[in-house]
Write a structure and sequence with these properties.
By secondary structure, the protein is mostly beta strands. It is built from no helices and six strands.
């Protein structure tokens, strides 16, 4: 909840995916449910990406994709 807590500060550029591209970031999570992993970091220079989502209740991050830009 970014209203009660500030956003996480990453060591590199990590941003949410743009609204028009979020459905490209839907992956099946470990529990079998399709979820949007719209947090993405960039491997620069180049087009590499890592897509993840924060799992607040476990205080972890889940990674769904590492590769070229979707």
């Amino acid at each position: 909840n970014t209203e009660t807590r500030p956003r996480h500060v990453w060591g590199s550029l990590v941003t949410p995916e743009h609204e028009t591209r979020k459905q490209l970031c839907r992956f099946t999570a470990l529990d079998g449910v399709g979820r949007v992993f719209d947090g993405h970091g960039r491997f620069t220079p180049g087009k590499g990406r890592i897509h993840c989502r924060l799992v607040a209740e476990e205080r972890t991050a889940r990674i769904a994709y590492i590769g070229s830009k979707l």
